Structure prediction request, 434 residues.
Amino acid sequence: MKPTSIQIIEILKKAGHIAYWAGGCVRDMLLGIEPQDFDIATSAKPDEIEDLLEETIPVGKQFGVIIAVQNRHHFEIATFRSDIEHKDGRRPSKIEFTNAKEDALRRDFTINGIFYDPTEDKVIDYVGGEKDLEARLIRFIGDPHERILEDHLRILRAVRFKNQFNFQYDQETYKALEKHAKLANKVSNERIRDELNKILLNPNTTCALEELSDLELLHEILPELQELKGCPQPVEFHTEGDVWDHTMAVFGALKPDASLILRWAALLHDIGKPSTIKLTERIRYDGHCEKGAEIARGILGRLRLPKKDVDEICWLISHHMMVVPLFEMGTGTRRKWFLGSRFPHLLELFRVDAAGIEPVDLGMYDRLLELYKHDLTHMPHAPKPLLTGLNVMKELGIKPGPAVGEILDELYERQLAGEIRDRKAALKWLRKRN
Ligand code: ATP
Ligand code: MG
Prediction:
């Protein structure tokens, strides 16, 4: 990928244009991180880029952005531009082609505004980005207030990059974030989702969430989560603090490779507590799993996450208190749970939920894990059912209806429990049952 992006820069330069690596890849390279993609900025106009390169896709041609397909890799090539029209703090609606310096000045933070010419190993820095990278500072290019008013998403991007790299804020930048936090609620839900997903997948998520809360940004973009602050927990079981403190500890216990689905489930697993809390003989949250799933569906739907992901996250939330019931089930029913495709995620949610409680007690989780492993060595995959609905109807001379499903369910659980091992035994059981 990297050599191919250099090839493209050489083609553009040979035709007399200026061409650089730009944005995130330069920042990452200077930080010693392997860049994920190599964006190119150039003086060549979109038509000229299309003429010079073999395969291109005109995705954002009116904004000066062309995708080049070279050696099966995709590269974003953007003509140097200024953004001249920002309406209501959204993405620019109009641009103008300019030079490299102007293009650097339209970018958000100094660390994202550095260019690099890989053919000459030369850094081109019009914005003091290198110095800020060294000092590990997030600083808006130009006047921070103006930059936020142009595009309010930059408030969230500041928090995201600051925590992603474990930097600090330049003080003027921080003051501007504090002042304009309210504007975050004008950002489109899709753009908020993309930033939140990145925050959840990056390191230091819990620090980022604390900052979002301190800056009163969370109240604007995820008010349901802010509600966890100050929602008490029973001291008999939780000495770690309130529901927010517990949630942060749970999130912190996730493994670095945890999926986005599990991350959202961990973040929202107790989102139903503030609305179900009652003080009887102790603090209780009856029905908080179901209520939590309902609230989570509202949040995730609003943020337009894919429906399939929303379904899984909400299922995990509504079943996150299943540890004890799983011990009390019959073998067949329990194995049906264990063999479900979502169970590994649920098991991991059990672990982090327990790990986020003080004093930590992983005893129940460890016992469940042992049982799970034991069951899986006996039955690593869900077996094919021994009989079909048709078999049952024919054998018993009955018509389609709920009874057929009930019989099949009971039979399958007995099959999973190892009580009924083959077709012959299944038919025998069926006749006897009747
Ligand atoms: P990541 O590693 O997350 O992709 P990135 O820096 O590449 O980080 P992108 O969102 O891919 O971030 O944007 C690429 C570049 O475009 C940024 O480095 C920045 O220079 C510029 N940019 C992106 N979004 C904005 C914005 N909202 N305002 C100003 N400049 C932006
Ligand atoms: Mg990028």
Q: What stands out?
A: The chain has four domains: 2-135, 140-221, 253-378, 389-433. Residues 389-433 form one domain. Residues 24, 37 surround magnesium ion (ligand 2) (CB under 6 Å). The first helix runs from residue 2 to 14.
